[in-house]
Design the sequence.
């Protein structure tokens, strides 16, 4: 968070950094300065912060040079890899050498990836985020193209297939 070379935006509430191991062409993390360990720790009082994080993510996307040609999503991993809440802002091309295994793929293309809008609605409605039981098992499901739903057996096959949807 502190490395200025990785920062692309900051204000009094959040900092946006480039993901150190991007799984897609454009992969940013929006992190609040406030210490919130995970989605399980989110309460209704955090709703304004979640909305701010989302709007900052939208701004980052709009400033992206490929904004008009790529689709983007914003969301959270149901079970995060680091203990500080962070919003992923990702392009949908999955064109990256850092995308190496099924777990990487499934963490962004199954319900393991909770859409930012859905998280905000959950907090607004219930005052907390509920992660479904068995969510971790989603990391093990077969590889499936997120565009056409075709099942593929290996990451190299999947990456080759994705070129049909996202030519460079």
Sequence:
């Amino acid at each position: 968070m502190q490395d200025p070379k990785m920062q692309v935006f900051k204000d009094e509430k959040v900092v946006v950094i480039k993901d150190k191991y991007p799984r897609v062409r454009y992969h940013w993390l929006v992190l609040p300065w406030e210490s919130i360990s995970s989605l399980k720790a989110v309460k209704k009082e955090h709703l304004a912060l979640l909305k701010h994080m989302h709007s900052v993510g939208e701004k980052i996307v709009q400033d992206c040079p490929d904004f008009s040609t790529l689709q983007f999503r914003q969301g959270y991993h149901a079970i995060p890899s680091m203990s500080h809440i962070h919003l992923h802002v990702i392009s949908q091309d999955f064109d990256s050498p850092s995308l190496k295994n099924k777990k990487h793929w499934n963490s962004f293309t199954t319900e393991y990836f909770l859409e930012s809008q859905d998280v905000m609605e959950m907090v607004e409605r219930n005052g907390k985020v509920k992660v479904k039981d068995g969510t971790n098992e989603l990391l093990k499901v077969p590889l499936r193209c997120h565009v056409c739903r075709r099942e593929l057996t290996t990451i190299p096959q999947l990456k080759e297939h994705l070129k049909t949807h996202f030519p460079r």
